[in-house]
Write a structure and sequence with these properties.
There is one protein chain. The protein is globular, with a radius of gyration of 21 Å. Helix 1 (46-57) crosses helix 10 and helix 9 (290-301) packs parallel to helix 10 (317-332). It has helices at 46-57, 74-77, 83-91, 101-106, 119-138, 167-175, 193-198, 246-264, 290-301, 317-332, 368-383, 484-488; strands at residues 24-27, 65-68, 143-146, 182-186, 205-212, 235-240, 268-272, 307-310, 391-394, 404-405, 477-478. It has one domain: Histone deacetylase domain (Arginase, Chain A, 3-Layer(aba) Sandwich). The protein contains twelve helices and eleven strands. The protein is of the alpha/beta class. The structure holds zinc ion. Keywords: Chromatin regulator, Hydrolase, Metal-binding, Nucleus, Repressor, Transcription, Transcription regulation, Zinc. Residues 489-499 have a biased composition (Basic residues). Substrate binds at residues 112, 161, 315.
Amino acid sequence: MDVSAGGGGNSLPTTGADGSKRRVCYFYDSEVGNYYYGQGHPMKPHRIRMTHALLAHYGLLDEMQVLKPHPARDRDLCRFHADDYVSFLRSVTPETQQDQIRALKRFNVGEDCPVFDGLYSFCQTYAGGSVGGAVKLNHGHDIAINWAGGLHHAKKCEASGFCYVNDIVLAILELLKYHQRVLYVDIDIHHGDGVEEAFYTTDRVMTVSFHKFGDYFPGTGDIRDVGHSKGKYYSLNVPLDDGIDDESYQSLFKPIMGKVMEIFRPGAVVLQCGADSLSGDRLGCFNLSIKGHAECVRFMRSFNVPVLLLGGGGYTIRNVARCWCYETGVALGHELTDKMPLNEYYEYFGPDYTLHVAPSNMENKNTNRQLDEIRSRLLDNLTKLRHAPSVQFQERPPEAELPEQDEDQENPDERHHADSDVEMNDAKPLEDTGRRSSIQSVRVKRESAETESTDQVERNSLLDSSISREPDDTYKATPSWQPMQKLVARQHQRRRTCQ
Ligand SMILES: [Zn+2]
């Protein structure tokens, strides 16, 4: 089939040509590579430092604003996570963990998610980068990058799959202060379960996950899981089989994401770029090339909607660094030379010392028939969104703290009072802040006739709110923001809840 179906670019009105420059900021903490999950553990934060070295030697650091993340504070993490879980993460140490056996079990910490030295500051660092990226997008940047983030499995009060705190959920909550709809896209080989679960019952966040499905961690992500209540049809799952190659992957990604952008029309996009979907990953079983993986970045970038690029899985670390370096180039609109520049980790990239690596000759178990079925079913689900119940926008809650900057000047208007949750421009009306290019006018529309008949809409579901979405994309802020704590308490009944 024509893999460009759905558009090689997009059908949305844009503010500039695809080749035009984007304002890009990049979050990096030079300590992040020192965190160590333990001997034999496949998750290696060192890959973030390797990525950074490649960026430096390809000259990309000069092309974007480089920021050191401000560590997320307890109260930042508690916007999604349970207080007792955050307290536990803050206090537990490798030396004292034996005294907290019950808590370790309760919070699923110990095996896949071990206690290691500096665990809490590691969480603060990667979460701080993602939230800081969201703040930057809220204040006019086009693309923000945090390769240390993307830990999509973490739950409200439970670690999972090498993830402790869910920086993605926190970043999306930050984006929701300014954007009535946020799109989450996940190209990690594993299902983005933590993010899906957090927003399963809201229509303000659409989650789309492309993942290996069937006898594979975490086991969720069935095509039949579409969201619940107001969130029905706002979760999309794309189940894939072993050995998927670039052409098969894009034959789903482009038509599906093209249609999602057209129908959902998000104000911001969060793209989790887990690199364990690459060919030859230590834990993965897909057969994507770096260019095939990066095509997802290129495609999402082409819509000229602010994008937060995050890391995620990726366990053959030389290829993770290659991939995220190349994708940073895509974000900046640069095609990087295949011949790798000398760098401090050069020996990792032998014997060829090239940026790209050939995919393998493994069998692609995804037949064209299966791919066609998945595509039509998901596109069909998307047509049901057109008349889905709409929601109202809420009053903007206080700003998160902005990241510290280790390079250029920071806009003083964006500065946050050190120990206060009160932002200087807190009271600023929503329609006066930041980018609002898609919003023509503001007015009230009461939710009424468009309410779905088959699903009772719960008034108190996730982000208890209603954005009116009209063809001209109007909305009205209303003064009843619901804290996330309450929102996540109302997750899908089938889903596991914490004690
Ligand atoms: Zn993964």
